[in-house]
Design goal:
The protein is mainly α and 236 residues long. 62% of the residues lie in helices and 5% in strands. It has two helices and three strands. Helix 1 packs antiparallel against helix 2. The radius of gyration is 69 Å and the shape is rod-shaped. The termini are far apart.
């Protein structure tokens, strides 16, 4: 590792050249391109000041290629700060271990929460599907009920029409019976009247026979008239 503060040599030909740069963190006190310094990357251009934020390298300042595009960057790396002490590296490593463990715990909790959410979503979808089926069944039941009500209404109308026809028939039968009774009463009355008139005529006939008998006794000159009267009486 090369320390810039010690004025060490360039990292072109020593262990500071690496194929992969560490992760970095923004630092406003140490940022931008170091135009005023002599450090140059493999492109022979001024280097970019950066601060490492990875494992035990956390906090180390270094120079690296200033190219913006990743595919254009070279692997130049020059450390500025001296290496941390063993105790400091241990503490930083422990902090990163705690950080990684916390991240793993969060990931595990998130996975568990995701599984629970997945179950909840599945249960929700199942309930939504059951609700959809229930709505369809309910709509079908309502449709069947409306159809049954319509059929019941038609049946009631038919029953009402039938009752009306029966009432009309009853009235017609009653009227026919009344007419029959009236005609029968009239016929009986006419019969009684004829019987009465017959009886009266019989009485009149008897009276005429008595008169004729008296007349025949009193005067034989009335024979022709008497015969005619007798013929008239015999016709009854």
């Amino acid at each position: 590792m090369v320390s810039w503060s010690e004025g060490s040599r360039s990292s072109w030909d020593d262990d500071s050249v690496t194929s992969q740069l560490p992760r970095t963190i923004p630092c406003y006190e140490l940022s931008g391109i170091a135009h005023e310094l002599s450090s140059r990357c493999m492109h022979l251009e001024p280097c970019l000041r950066q601060v490492a934020f990875q494992s035990t390298d956390t906090g180390w300042r270094f120079f690296a290629c200033a190219k913006e595009k990743a595919e254009e960057k070279c692997c130049y790396l020059e450390w500025i700060d001296p290496e941390w002490s063993v105790s400091m590296q241990f503490c930083i490593g422990q902090l990163w271990s705690m950080h990684d463990k916390e991240n793993k715990d969060k990931i595990r909790d998130n996975l568990k929460l995701g599984e629970e959410n997945f179950k909840i979503v599945g249960e929700k979808r199942r309930m939504e599907e059951e609700l959809r089926i229930f709505k369809l069944d309910f709509a079908k039941m309502v449709s069947n009920k409306e159809e049954a009500i319509s059929q019941l209404g038609s049946a009631r109308l038919a029953i009402s029409d039938l009752k009306e026809e029966l009432e009309k028939k009853k009235l017609a039968d009653h009227s026919s019976t009344n007419l029959h009774h009236v005609l029968r009463a009239k016929a009986e009355k006419e019969r009684d009247q004829l019987v009465l008139e017959r009886d009266q005529m019989k009485e009149e006939k008897k009276k005429l026979e008595h008169i004729i008998s008296d007349m025949m006794k009193q005067n034989h000159g009335y024979k022709d008239k008497v015969k005619k009267l007798k013929e008239i009486c015999d016709e009854f």
